[in-house]
């Protein structure tokens, strides 16, 4: 299926953040804490259109490779989606089968040159493997993907729905905890669009964690998300693995040997990639657990901790 266009804060550059929270020994491909489970995510935010085919298909641990078998030996074959954003409304392609079945995923990945990309391969935990339950979810310019689960979601669902705007409730087409989260977060955003999106995401996830603790004491939620409108890009890491790779100049891909960027000579290229696992043997760094983050229009990174009182 293809849909077309439809507290204290600490600000760091990415390099400073990585220096503070990661060591060289933890950035090697396949090392670091083995905390994964449920689905795999990929995200890109760049200041110039960028090709992502190698990250999604060709790299030694591309998203499609992770879909077949991740570092824990799990298969994520219950659907896939790729969305790209270069201004205006996003383009989205989804299928409810495994990414390695047929050529659809490869072809979708090969067509993309974009400044914002969100991709997802699914290992179903809440809701059957259908198009309606396949990520990324879309509303206007907004894209949303989630890795993890709300434990015993049916106990939390009523609280989420009661706090969600009726118009957004009526737009829920599937049965996943992820889509319900998305519509709840959009409700928070439209109530206070003047707030930084990072603040909205943090408040929303903290509330979801509170509801989860009330209904399922001692059970751990998994709340890795990527959420963007093509300009603002925010995300979280909570009880699942998430890594990032920053670039400060045009590069030649170590896999294909070509440049991935439609580059303007007077522009200093910058990008940030996010993935559930390091995709290549490059200098990936682990994002701290229990945190939310944003990438602004200048590709600056801000990170804020989530409340550690939650399990």
Key terms:
alpha+beta, disordered N terminus, single chain, seven-stranded antiparallel beta sheet, about 300 residues, globular, Glutamine Phosphoribosylpyrophosphate, subunit 1, domain 1, about 25% strand
Would you give an account of this structure?
By secondary structure, this protein is an alpha+beta fold. The chain has a domain at 28-147 and 222-300: Aminohydrolase, N-terminal nucleophile (Ntn) domain (Glutamine Phosphoribosylpyrophosphate, subunit 1, domain 1), CATH 3.60.20.10. The protein contains eight helices and 15 strands. It has helices spanning 14-21, 53-58, 63-68, 104-110, 153-162, 166-170, 177-191, 197-215, and strands at 2-4, 10-12, 40-51, 80-85, 91-95, 113-121, 137-139, 142-147, 224-228, 233-237, 243-247, 271-275, 285-286, 291-295, 301-305. The strands form two sheets. It has an eight-stranded antiparallel β-sheet, with helices on both faces. Strands 2-15-14-10-9-8-7 form a seven-stranded antiparallel β-sheet. Helix 5 packs parallel to helix 7 (177-191), helix 5 (153-162) packs across helix 8 (197-215) and helix 7 (177-191) crosses helix 8 (197-215). The longest helix is centred in the middle third of the chain and has 19 residues, at 197-215. The chain is globular.
Classified by CATH, the class of the domain at 28-147 and 222-300 is: Alpha Beta
Number of helices: 8
Largest sheet: 8 strands, antiparallel
DSSP strand tally: 15
Q: Which strand order spans the largest sheet, edge to edge or round the barrel?
A: 1-5-4-6-3-12-11-13
Structural class from helices and strands? alpha+beta
The protein's oligomeric status is: single chain
C-alpha-based Rg, rounded: 18 Å
Q: How confident overall, as mean pLDDT?
A: 82
Distance between the termini: 38 Å
SSE pattern, N- to C-terminal: EEHEHHEEHEEEHHHHEEEEEEE
Q: What percent of residues adopt helix (DSSP H or I)?
A: 10-25%
Query: Which topology of the domain at 28-147 and 222-300 does CATH recognise?
Result: Glutamine Phosphoribosylpyrophosphate, subunit 1, domain 1
CATH architecture of the domain at 28-147 and 222-300: 4-Layer Sandwich
β-strand percent reads 25-35%
What form results from the Cα inertia axes? globular
């Amino acid at each position: 299926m293809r849909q077309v266009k439809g507290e204290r804060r600490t600000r760091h550059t990415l390099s400073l953040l990585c220096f503070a929270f990661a060591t060289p020994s933890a950035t090697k491909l396949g090392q670091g804490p083995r905390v994964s489970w449920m689905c795999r995510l990929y995200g890109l935010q760049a200041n110039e259109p960028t090709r992502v085919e190698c990250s999604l298909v060709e790299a030694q641990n591309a998203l499609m490779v992770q879909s077949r078998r991740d570092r824990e030996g799990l298969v994520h074959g219950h659907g896939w989606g790729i969305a790209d954003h270069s201004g205006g409304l996003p383009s989205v392609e989804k299928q409810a089968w495994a990414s390695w079945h047929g050529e659809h995923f490869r072809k979708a990945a090969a067509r993309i040159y974009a400044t914002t990309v969100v991709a997802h391969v699914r290992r179903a935990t809440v809701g059957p493997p259908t198009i309606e339950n396949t990520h990324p979810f879309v509303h206007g310019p907004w894209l949303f993907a989630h890795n993890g689960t709300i434990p015993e979601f049916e106990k939390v669902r009523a609280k989420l729905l009661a706090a969600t705007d009726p118009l957004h409730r009526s737009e829920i087409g599937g049965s996943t905890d992820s889509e319900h989260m998305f519509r709840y977060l959009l409700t928070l955003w439209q109530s206070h669009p003047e707030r930084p999106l990072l603040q909205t995401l943090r408040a929303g996830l903290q509330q979801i964690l509170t509801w989860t603790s009330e209904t399922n004491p001692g059970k751990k939620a998994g709340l890795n998300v990527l959420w963007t409108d093509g300009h603002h890009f925010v995300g979280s890491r909570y009880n699942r693995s998430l890594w990032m790779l920053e670039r400060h100049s045009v590069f030649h891909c170590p896999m294909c040997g070509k440049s991935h960027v439609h580059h303007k000579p007077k522009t200093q290229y910058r990008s940030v990639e996010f993935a559930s696992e390091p995709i290549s043997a490059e200098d990936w760094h682990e994002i701290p657990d229990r945190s939310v983050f944003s990438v602004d229009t200048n590709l600056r990174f801000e990170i804020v901790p989530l409340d550690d009182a939650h399990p």
